[in-house]
Amino acid sequence: MDAPAETPLLRRIRESVIGDDQVVPGPEPPLRLTDVHYDADGLLRYPRHAERAPDSELPRYLADARACFAAAGAGPGGGPGDLVSADFEHLRWFELPAACLA
Q1: DSSP states of 72-97
Q2: In this predicted structure, what is the pLDDT of residue 19?
Q3: CA distance linking residue 94 with residue 24, whole number of Å
């Protein structure tokens, strides 16, 4: 039997099939709709990916962060008011030592 001719209606139906090439935004890595389901209590369930880096990676992450901050430079001006936006300064209710911005 030959496949039915491709029509706009048939194309629309194929594109609307739940789970067909649709990705659920949110958890990493992305999941297909076919990987997500509700359990008997009505809670949304999906495969958990609990991959974590070992503690031995922390020094490398810190070195990367230091390099990122060093590449950003000290910023314009010298006082805290020059290093934060006026909106931040207006909403701030806490003391912000200059050492925090150096």
Answers
A1: H-S-SSSSHHHHS-HHHHHH--S---
A2: 57
A3: 39
The predicted model gives 24-46 an average pLDDT of 77
Distance (Å, whole) CA 37 – CA 49: 16
Q: Residues 66, 74: contact at Cβ < 8 Å?
A: no
pLDDT at 50 over 60: yes
Provide the 8-state DSSP code for 10. Answer: H
Average pLDDT value for residue range 68-73: 80
For the chain, give the longest Cα–Cα distance: 78
**Residues 87, 90, 93, 96: what is their CA dihedral angle, to the nearest 10 degrees?**
70
Task: Report domain extents, the chain.
Answer: 8-45, 55-101
In angstroms, rounded to a whole number, what is the distance separating the alpha carbons of residues 36 and 65? 35
Length of the chain (residues): 102
Bridging pattern class, strands 23-24 and 37-38: unpaired
